[in-house]
Design brief:
This protein is mostly helical and 183 residues long. 23% of the residues lie in helices and 3% in strands. It folds into two domains: 33 residues; 136 residues, 3 Solenoid (Pectate Lyase C-like). The chain has a two-stranded parallel ribbon. Helix 1 packs antiparallel against helix 2. The longest helix is centred in the N-terminal third of the chain and has 15 residues.
Length: 183
């Protein structure tokens, strides 16, 4: 029985099939089937990366600066004094996270969930929070110079305290902080 021509599928798989064919190796088709299944596993594209889950961890002082972290989960995580500056946290969930004295400057927080998070002394300078959910978020002594709060639902008392310190223009969106808060 003659094997059909097999183009090189990739060096290891194609070479193995060519050697098998040239040597007229005929015992059980199982050997060929096994070889092909191994080649399929080796040649398979990598599975899509799932977003990281850091829920309920203590990450005090952790350095996550400048990272691509879309969709990451930090639910109920202690991120006190953590550095998340310059990171892409679009779609991330920080529900109930403790962000005291954390650095979130220049961070993309579009579509993020910040509900019930505690931001006390947190640096949000030049952060983009467009369409984030932060209705029950505690903002205490936060730095929001240049932050963009477009379409972020906030309680009236929180809105008043943020408007009292709002200043600057976001360098990414070009929007004034006061305008995005509706001050």
């Amino acid at each position: 029985m003659r094997l059909p021509q097999v183009p090189l599928l990739g060096f290891p798989c194609g070479l193995a099939i060519v050697i098998l064919r040239e040597m007229s190796f005929r015992p059980a088709a199982a050997a060929l089937a096994l070889l092909l299944s191994v080649c399929t596993l080796v040649m398979a594209p990598p599975a899509a990366q799932a977003a990281m889950d850091y829920a309920k961890q203590v990450l005090i002082g952790a350095d996550f600066s400048g990272r691509e972290m879309q969709g990451v989960t930090f639910n109920l995580t202690n991120l006190r004094e953590a550095d998340l500056s310059g990171s892409d946290l679009q779609g991330a969930s920080l529900f109930g996270a403790k962000l005291q004295d954390a650095d979130l400057s220049n961070t993309n927080l579009r579509d993020a969930t910040l509900d019930s998070a505690v931001l006390d002394g947190t640096n949000l300078s030049n952060a983009v929070l467009e369409d984030a959910f932060a209705f029950n978020t505690r903002f205490i002594n936060v730095t929001i110079s240049g932050a963009d709060f477009t379409n972020v639902p906030l309680r009236g008392d929180v809105l008043n305290s943020l408007c009292a310190v709002a200043e600057g223009t976001n360098p990414v969106t070009g929007r004034d902080t006061r305008d995005t808060l509706g001050c």
